[in-house]
Amino acid sequence: MRLTGLRGVVTGAASGIGLATAGLLLDRGAQVIAFDLTPSEGTERLTSQGAELVLGDVSLPADRQRLADAAGACDFLVNAAGIMRAAPILELQPPDWDALMSVNAASVFFLSQLIGPRLRDGGAIVNVSSVAARRAANLETAAYAATKSAVLSITRSFAHAFAERQVRVNAVVPGLIDTPMQDRLVEDTARIRGRALEELERDRAEGVPLARLGTAEEVAETIAWLISPQSSYLTGQAVAVDGGMTMF
Questions:
Q1: Is the distance from CB of 67 to CB of 33 less than 8 angstroms?
Q2: 241: Cα separation from own chain's centroid
Q3: How many CB atoms lie within 10 A of CB 41?
Q4: Residue 181 belongs to what H/E stretch?
Q5: In 3D, which of 98, 13, 17 has the Cα closest to residue 59?
Q6: Whole-model pTM above 0.85?
Q7: Is residue 200 part of a domain?
């Protein structure tokens, strides 16, 4: 599945699913504008592969506009930037709610608003949601789950908005994926619950029908397919990459 000739944006490109996606798209021949907060080992890896690096904060309107201007006419947008803040549901504070909504949901809406009209006909947007949008199993991530539910709604709305130009807008719904963010979440949850880290990790894996965590590369493969012409009749959908945690 070659993507030669396609050019587009991946946010949150410095680590996790964003890094795996940007790297895979580059390997498949796409030109990638990698967007993240600061230079890092991940951004160095991508620039060595030929990515164009743009630094900024997806929660800031001026930085989003600068990214859109750098992208110009392009073929795809992957909204992979995200943050996680774990707290008991009765203790989460408004500043944390606002930060989560700004990065995880508002950035998806406004980058789609800015870059979507610049996508060439037949282009694609892929938004990264989460299994948390469909399962309320972890009350320490209730606000995060709300943002990822919002991502699914935003996906459907822009799928309608851009359908006339054959621009497809879909979401991936990752489950338990082996990423730095997942590591931090498990550590924070174990601390909040007063449980042993190893015990919590084991319990979480046992809740997955395939009995393991997924990899960022497995999610990236699905994103690449959603960008490619092979998924040309798919829009407004939420594709679960979760080892069977949700089966609907």
A1: yes
A2: 12
A3: 9
A4: helix 180-193
A5: 98
A6: yes
A7: no
